[in-house]
Design a protein that fits this description.
Length: about 260
């Protein structure tokens, strides 16, 4: 389904594709009014969805700048099928690869990929498998996949002992299986960014208390040139304030316009 907007605004189109577990995943493609000069695949954070304001505002900014933007829901989140309890970072990596394949099949290239928080770690891990991707960006991403374990709190012991547990994250309860934790230990994000052979941008807010800015410093330090580190004074982890999100979106948009 394509949603029509005024002539000077992008169109949005809902797309589906098959994810890592064989489930149907759903995304929204933002098409610029003019012919797209490139495309950006967008991966959301751990318990978020494609419809988080961070993703929607970024997608609008990218499409306003002439780039097609594709934001999608990981398996078990938002409008995508699947069981969130069976979520793993490995599954997210494969979901990203499948989403990138969908973009390429639709003829949207050259392609960039962007990830927020744990979605940022996932795009760095997926980059080795994304040979058609020319540029990579992360926002508020950790340098260690296991960083997310601090969000599990006291539930981690029950999770590892019983194999499944309800976890309170940000006031919402999610069911997870122990494989989520075990899988985190199999990934080395710093090794992935060190092996990245494409331009890399990391954006982080100094007042992010969920993923501290030192994580971004480690990512940037491990990456090869060409690279850029944008340190923003405010925005928190989700860049909720509109003025902060606009500054962040301007930095990301400028990066992709220069590197795609």
């Amino acid at each position: 389904m394509t949603t029509k907007r005024p002539p000077d605004r992008p169109e949005t189109e809902k797309l589906t594709f098959i994810g890592s577990g064989g489930n149907e995943l759903t995304g929204v493609l933002h098409r610029p009014p003019q012919r797209a000069t490139g495309s950006v695949l967008m991966a959301h954070c751990f318990t978020c969805s494609k419809d988080l304001h961070t993703m929607t505002r970024l997608a609008d900014a990218l499409s306003d700048a002439g780039l097609a933007a594709f934001r999608f829901d990981f398996t078990g989140r938002g409008e995508s099928e699947g069981d969130f309890a069976k979520k793993t970072l490995s599954g997210n990596v494969t979901d990203i690869v499948r989403a990138a394949t969908k973009l390429i099949e639709l003829g949207f290239g050259p392609c960039g990929v962007l990830g927020h928080s744990l979605g940022g770690a996932a795009v760095l891990l997926a980059a080795e498998r994304l040979k058609t991707v020319r540029s990579v960006a992360t926002i508020g991403a950790p340098s260690d996949a296991s960083h997310v374990r601090h969000l599990l709190g006291n539930s981690e012991t029950e999770l590892l002992t019983e194999g499944v547990a309800d976890v309170n994250i940000g006031g919402r309860v999610f069911t997870l299986e122990a494989e989520f934790v075990h899988d985190l230990e199999t990934h080395d994000v710093l090794e992935a960014v060190a092996g990245l052979d494409r331009p890399y941008l990391t954006v982080h807010a100094e007042d992010d208390t969920t993923v501290l800015i030192g994580e971004a410093e480690r990512l940037h330090g491990a990456a090869k040139e060409p690279k850029k580190f944008v340190r923003l004074a405010t925005g928190g982890h989700l860049f909720g304030p509109r003025d902060a999100s606009e500054v962040m979106a301007e930095e990301v948009t400028s990066w992709f316009r220069a590197t795609l």
